[in-house]
Amino acid sequence: MPTSLLLTAPEFKALRASESSYRRLFETAQDGILLLNVDTAQIEDVNPYLINMLGYTHAEFLGKKLWEVGPFSDRCESKEMFAELQTKGYARYEDLPLKTKSGARVQVEFVSNTYECDGIQVIQCNIRDITKRKSAEAEIQRRTHLYNALSQSNKAIVHCTNEEELFLKICCAAVRFGRMKMAWIGLINAETHRVLPACSFGGGIEELKNIEISADAESPFGHGPIGIALRENRPFWSQDFMNDPLTAPWQERAARGGWAASASLPLHRNGIIIGAFTLYAGETNAFDEAACDLLVEMAVDISFALSNFTNEIARKQAEQELRIAAIAFESQEGILITDADKVILRINKSFTRQTGYSAEEIVGKTPALMKSGRQSPEFYQQMWEVLTRDHYWHGEIWNRRKNGEIYPDWLTITAVTNTEGKVTNYVSSYSDLSKFKKSEAAIHSLAFYDPLTSLPNRRLLVERLQHTFAASARHHYHAALLFIDLDNFKILNDTRGHNIGDLLLIEVASRLQACVREGDTVARLGGDEFIVILQELSEEPLQAAAQTEVICDKILAAIGRPHLLANYEYQSSASIGITLFCNQAVMVDELLKRADTAMYQAKNAGRNSLRFYDPAMQVVLETRAALETDLRGALGENQFRLHYQMQVGHTGHILGAEVLIRWLHPQRGLVSPLQFIPLAEETGLILPIGRWVLEMACAQLKTWEADPLACNLRLAINVSAPQFHQPDFVEQVRQTFQRHVLNPNQIKFELTESLVLDNISDTIVKMHALRQNGVRFSMDDFGTGYSSLSYLTQLPLDQLKIDQSFVRNIGVKHSDSIIVQTIIGMANNLGMEVIAEGVETEEQRAFLEQHGCVVYQGDLFGKPVPVEEFEEELKNRNDNGQ
């Protein structure tokens, strides 16, 4: 043990008395000794041991103050230390860092005391080098931490049930108990060979994001610690990570993460390398031999756990497969097991339910017991050839139940072999296809046949048309497509109900089938539309047309015979459109469109007739279709305008105006209402158009409230039948009035006779409801429709409007003049106002005034004009006193 002296004052005096003994002790001491002047802090002497320890010469110490020499160059700390020595007379520092002349750091234990010698106060400082001891202590501490980490890892291995949980606890143990800076586990991607982080913990884990590490020697990122550890299947230690050439690609990340040294250890699963366990320390040379051994042991334990996980999963899967096999044997499929000679050994309950055979009845026999006789010997020969070659066969087969019923089965046979490859058993599973076959037939029927009439539907019709095209082209004969539409079918449905309508469709389908030849097709397209394909007509078009006409006449006669529909006798008729084709490259849809066009020609000709396709009519229909397309976008694109035609009294004073809609198309220009109003009614677009007209008219009246010239004007608005008969029409009108805060007395609805008489009871209810809200009513085009005289007294009408067709013939056609007089007289007698439209001459106006009609509308007073022109005319008339 090195000599360490801290002498007491008497001992020191005695030694000084014996100078040679003191000098020998001073020179040979195994601790550094430094003598200081207690007053000046100058160094009086140093011994050789201190000179060797710190590397400075004797002369570099002597005469200098304590803080003027290298080891004590921190001026502040050295002065504080000296001040403590002066004050207390002694000092002790158990771990004092000093710097040698070469720049190395040493840890020392510093002990001092003050003595008086020959009247001089001297401080003796004993300095012991404890660097090795401290290093050993640190090593022991690191090892202890790693033992703790290993202990925690073993606990995790015992308690964890999956890899993810284990990986996290291992990484946490390495950092929290092993005092590592960071730890992570990376797994090898089988396709790219990249090492991808599976789990990480500690400081700097963000540096693992997008990190490039590979197990592939060809990769530039495959030559670092992890890549080498994986390829060479050995641990790799990088004791100075920041200066190791192998770690260059990752040193920037290491600097940010504070990684000074690393350890990379391969991990295995059942002997196969799957990844690496990597740890980073915060100081260099952190992994000595003992630490390395501990980490290798930890990696081995982790690999053992991974193998156990895999084996446990395999064991559980095997158990699950056994359970599944047991359940599968009692599955919904029939199962039969035979020996190699095809003798039945076992069946399940499903087999008994399917075939009717119990185990007692069939075990010991062969499956030939169930043969239906439908398969040929060649079928069974081919089946066994495949089974012998592949040890597997599956296919559809017909079997016979115990009760003799023949049924379809889906049979799967698997040969079971022993370790020598010899067949020991055959396992057959049987799936009864009876229900599937029935469902398949039902699905086919739904897919290709109309469920109501059992006729082919559109899908099957298209297929047969394509076959007809091909046959017609091949044999050069004509064929015909008939498009049949029942006349007035909607009226029957609406008045008698859909059940009666369905009965008619079924009866018509039956009669159509009776009218055509074998090989022809009758199909239902939908609703009351039927299609007939006539095949193998003459090669000559005229003769083919004559053949078609004969069959069509037969169809019209058959449909025209009375139908007894649930005790209700109904007389029907049909319109038939016909198109002939022969060796023509025409699409199916085009052919149907041609026949449809011809059918509409038959409708327009008075119904209960037939027409052949006329190309000129197709042009008209295409034009109409284009107009319909434009009409559908007109409202959204703000293409409609309101025009106003004044209604005046006999003095010429403007009482109001009729609101008339105009369509200003960007390409077509001004489209006539005669073109687009009927189309709007057919397509249902009249409803949004009607709402728009009412909305805009009310908005205009609201604007006029502030104009003294226009505030009392009434607007007449035409209401179409579809619009009026909407269930919520009254509520729509009320809400429109409420939105505009409008006086409803200024609104007059013009209704046609046909509208009024269609569901008269509903009409009366709605008119009274609207009348209670202040709306006035005018019957438009009076006298041109059905006679409505018996209903006039029931309707809350304010005005009758004489149609312009009568006004136009005043003075020209005596009967029309009489009708005009009659309408005026009847209106006056019923207390109604009367207005004449289409007044174009002064003679017409004078005749009307003479017979009591004092309100007029027509070009004599002004054409329909935009609101700006109407307001200008209103101002002009006011200026002229009218």
Automatic annotation (TrEMBL):
Catalytic activity: 3',3'-c-di-GMP + H2O = 5'-phosphoguanylyl(3'->5')guanosine + H(+)
Residues of the PAC domain: 393-445
Protein name: EAL domain-containing protein
Domain EAL: 624-878
Span of domain GGDEF: 477-615
GO MF annotation, one: cyclic-guanylate-specific phosphodiesterase activity
SUPFAM superfamilies, sorted: EAL domain-like (SSF141868), GAF domain-like (SSF55781), Nucleotide cyclase (SSF55073), PYP-like sensor domain (PAS domain) (SSF55785)
Top-level taxon of origin: Bacteria
Pfam family, one: PAS_9
Species the sequence originates in: Ferrovum myxofaciens
InterPro entries: Biofilm_reg_signaling, EAL_dom, EAL_sf, GAF, GAF-like_dom_sf, GGDEF_dom, Nucleotide_cyclase, PAS
Segments forming domain PAS: 18-66, 320-366
Matching PANTHER family: BIOFILM ARCHITECTURE MAINTENANCE PROTEIN MBAA, DIGUANYLATE CYCLASE DGCP
BP GO annotations: cellular response to nitric oxide
